[in-house]
Amino acid sequence: MTLNDVEKIISSAPAAELATYNCEGFPEIRALLNLANLTQYPLLDGKAMKFDGENLTLYFTTNTSSRKIQQIRKNNKVCLYFCLPKKFKGVSATGFIEEVTDLNIKKDFWQNGWEIYYPKGWQDDDYTLLKFTSVHLHCWFNFALHDFGKSLKDSN
Fold it and tell me: How far is the C-alpha of 132 from the C-alpha of 80, rounded, in Å?
């Protein structure tokens, strides 16, 4: 498996599953729009997903008022999962996530139709852009496991 294969899985996955920790220390998982999916978001090609060596950067949107933002502000260590279940392929990306505050970047990611989530557009206070940076990628491809990046014990 190569990083090109990882990119293909992520860019084909219909959604991204995000795991954060709640106030009691338990993980919570929810689906996010996969902005790296080229079929759904062709205008974000080259923006929503970038590799720097074995480190992966991904962007997501969510509501500022959501519980996940409160959880991220308390603990920004997260895990993302992308899968193509019918092909037995998946990517688990562990790393850090942060809120993007630069209005120009938020505007650059804005997509027509998102007014359904953020009625005031890209300047809506409830529109948050998130930036994820991986530490480790654990992948399933062709019935084998593959790892990229630091081992998790080295990332503390």
Answer: 9
Q: Output the six-digit token pair for 78.
A: 């997260």
Alpha-carbon distance of 83 to 85, in angstroms, equals 6
**Phi then psi dihedrals of residue 97, to 5 deg:** -125, 145
* pLDDT at 155 > cutoff 50: no
Q: In the chain, at which residue ranges do the beta strands (DSSP E only) sit?
A: 15-21, 27-33, 49-52, 55-63, 77-84, 89-100, 127-141, 144-149
pLDDT in tens, 42-58: 999 999 999 999 999 99
Instruction: Report how far residue 98's alpha carbon sits from residue 58's, in angstroms, rounded to the nearest whole number.
Output: 11
Please give the backbone phi and psi of residue 35, each rounded to the nearest 5 degrees, phi first. Answer: -65, -15
**Two tokens at 51?**
């590799």
The CA-based angle 75-133-24, given to 5 degrees, is 20
Quote the pTM value. Answer: 0.92
